[in-house]
């Protein structure tokens, strides 16, 4: 829910919160091209 992406050092990252608007934690993902 409510993910956000950004670019850092020519890599795109996505931050996202878990179930319950972050109640169960949060995470990030890196786009592999």
Shape: elongated
Strand order of the largest sheet: 1-2-3
List low-confidence stretches: none
Give the helix tally.
Answer: 1
Order of helices and strands: EEHE
Level of helix content?
10-25%
Description:
There is one protein chain. By secondary structure, the chain is mainly beta. It has one domain. The chain contains one helix and three strands, in the order ββαβ. The longest helix has 4 residues. It is elongated. The mean pLDDT is about 85.
Summarize the structure.
The chain is built from 1 helix and 3 strands, in the order ββαβ. The chain is mainly beta and 33 residues long. The chain has one domain (1-33).
Supply the key terms.
33 residues, mainly beta, 3-stranded antiparallel beta sheet, 1 helix, 12% helix, elongated
């Amino acid at each position: 829910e409510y993910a956000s992406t950004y670019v850092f050092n020519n890599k795109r990252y996505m931050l996202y919160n878990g179930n319950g608007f972050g109640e169960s934690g949060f995470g990030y993902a890196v786009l592999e091209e």
